[in-house]
Design goal:
Shape: globular
Number of strands: 6
CATH superfamily of the largest domain: K homology (KH) domain
Family: Belongs to the OsmC/Ohr family.
CATH topology of the largest domain: GMP Synthetase, Chain A, domain 3
Largest sheet: 3 strands, antiparallel
Number of helices: 3
Protein name: Organic hydroperoxide resistance protein
Order of helices and strands: EEEHEEHHE
CATH class of the largest domain: Alpha Beta
Strand content: 25-35%
Length: 136
């Protein structure tokens, strides 16, 4: 396997601190969401996870669009990340919605399932969290 790239980020202060890419490319103030008793004034890990997965999944849709006879450049990928808690710990859940205006629904469904097979975020979380794939 050929490593294509590596990225590094450092966090200080956890969910109420700051996180930054070590190369200086981006930095965010972090805060607990209002739903969890925080100010909600900064980013939270689930938001960053949703943005990364949406972008990555969108690239998988672009890569596979032609094979499924769908114009992947017209696709919109929305990733909803939920954080839940039971008696022991916290867990993530994800809903990925793909829409391609004017495209055949069955082709978009097949494309979304195929993208879920190759997207690195999907592969990394497979069988670890609940993921729902939907087509709008």
């Amino acid at each position: 396997m050929q490593k294509l790239m590596t990225v590094s980020a450092t966090s200080r202060g956890g969910r109420d601190g700051r996180v930054a890419l070590d190369n200086g490319g981006a930095a965010f103030a972090m805060s607990l969401p209002k739903e969890m008793g925080g100010s909600g004034d900064g980013m939270n890990p689930e938001q960053l996870f949703a943005m990364g997965w949406a972008s990555c999944f969108g690239q998988a849709v672009l890569a596979l669009g032609k094979k499924h006879d769908v114009d992947g450049s017209r696709a919109r990928v929305t990733v909803e990340v939920s954080l839940s808690k039971d008696d022991i710990s916290f867990m993530l859940g994800v809903k990925i919605t793909v829409s391609v205006p004017g495209a055949d629904r069955s082709k978009v469904e097949a494309l979304a399932e195929a993208a879920h097979e190759i997207c690195p975020y999907s592969r990394a979380t497979r069988n670890n969290i609940d993921v729902t794939i939907a087509v709008a």
